[in-house]
Amino acid sequence: MKSIKEIRREKLAIAIRERCEDNQSRAAERLGYSTPSLVNRYLSGAKDIGDRTARKVEETLGYPKFWMDSDASPLVPSDQATDLARRVKFMLEKIGLPPAEIALAAGTTEQDVLEWAEGTRKPTLVQAIGLQEKHQINSVWLLNGKGQPTPAISYNDDWAPIPIPQNAFRRIPVLAMAKLGDNGHFCDLEYPVGHGDGYLQFFSMDSDAYGLRCVGDSMEPRIKDGEFVVIEPNHAVAAGDEVLVRSKDGRVMIKILGYTRDGYSAFLSVNQSHKTVKISAAEVEELSFVAAIVKPSAWRPE
Predict the structure, then answer these.
(1) What's the number of CA atoms in the CB half-sphere (13 Å) around residue 55?
(2) DSSP string spanning 41-81?
(3) Angle at 222 between CA 219 and CA 224, to 5 degrees
(4) Which is nearest to 113 in space by CA: 136, 135, 89, 132?
(5) Which helix (H) or strand (E) holds 286?
(6) pTM strictly above 0.90
(7) Which of 212, 169, 211, 173 is nearest to 192 (CA)?
(8) For residue 241, which of 285, 289, 203 has the smallest C-alpha distance?
(9) C-alpha distances in angstroms, 182 versus 186, 244, 272, 277, 281?
(10) How far, in Å, CA of 66 to CA of 104, rounded?
(11) What is the pLDDT of residues 40-83, one digit of tens each?
């Protein structure tokens, strides 16, 4: 393995060739040296290139920080060379930029990019990630041929937030507790309308929205014991929605509305150990939309 001294000496020679027309006097001038003698001493190994000088070379000659300290791209086994060259060629055509600009994104040199295209060397992981971030080239695909040429997820989408009305966040009263079981019950707290067991500071456009404190495990891991749900009684419900269902026999449960047909409604639990509950439509006293699941930390006392 090469020492940091050897790597920096080789990188300086590359920088002079690429950015200073292979002219040591030009390099000395750009680096602020009165004569090229110091550059000559660096190249010959008579003087080591220290950290300060390495950073100065990178900044002055237009290379990424710590480029002087990175070793050359790894060699490629002969049986992988053709596939690598094909992937790099595809990348160059897709990006449509000259190798010198590709090198800048990868934090390397134009010579390295040309060697990638020949299949003799492959990018380092850091270089491949740089290409992914700048040009949306899948780093895993480029290095190993796995997956698709472009990442499955792009992180440069335009910022387009959904506007929220100023009065949407408000105090939502917690009025009751619901047991999350097949024979659940509803514990009214017997407080006046608009008051109860504290409140949730949360978003809702339903002026009649209220909160429930949930107890039980039938909806775990979706709803955990001790969490709250926000109920919007004025919101229409459909199959697949999480709902608050109150039956005339006193049961009140948080379930998933499965279907309604033949005079019955079927309610499902996320937790598969709880069976499907079927209730006659005539026995359903209330069926309300569950708008959100809220962590206990959102609860505030009166």
Answers:
(1) 2
(2) HHHHTSS---HHHHHHHHHHHT--TTGGGPPPPPB--HHHH
(3) 70
(4) 89
(5) strand 284-294
(6) no
(7) 173
(8) 289
(9) 12, 13, 12, 7, 17
(10) 13
(11) 999 999 999 998 999 999 899 988 777 787 665 666 777 888 99
